[in-house]
Amino acid sequence: MRRPGWATLALLLAVLCSPSAPAASAPPGADRRPPSSGFTQTDVPVRVGAPLPSDLALVQGWARDDRSGVDRVTVFFCPGTRHQDGSWVCTSELSPVSTPFQVRAEVVCRAGSRRRDCQWRTPAPERPGRYLVLVRAQDRSGRSATSPEVFEVLVL
Fold first, then answer.
1. Dihedral of CA 23/39/58/44: which sign?
2. Domain limits of the chain?
3. Strand 70-79 with 36-39, pairing
4. Which of 3, 15, 34, 84 is most exposed, with minimal Cβ within 10 Å?
5. Using one digit for the tens of pLDDT, what is the confidence trace for 48-81?
6. Contacts from 108-113 at CB under 8 Å and sequence distance 24+?
């Protein structure tokens, strides 16, 4: 479920929370297109997670790259609150100031796909709260892109 302005927020957080993509110059025939990625749980706007070893405590998605293949997937968690207008503020109910954090997701690729068709997953945060979640994939040529999709996780 997309809300107005969330793609812009996703881009801003990705720029603030991660290193920049490699320079745009590439030799002829090189991989110039970044990978794509997203979430597999987009049917629910708020996912309830718990620090338990189960699928309920996982944030999951997909990553694809037609050329060089997926190298890694980074998942960004922005603790905070969502206002009624859809905007998001990165603060936690538990502390007045909280910073976004990132984790490297576990990536499993389809056999024979040369890492071009992959699934990823990472545990939900253990600390209770509400999180806006963004995902960024990087291919083996060093190109990266943040998904325009965002996801919201509620950890009890």
1. positive
2. 6-17+35-155
3. unpaired
4. 84
5. 555 555 666 788 999 999 999 999 999 999 988 7
6. 109/69, 109/70, 113/69
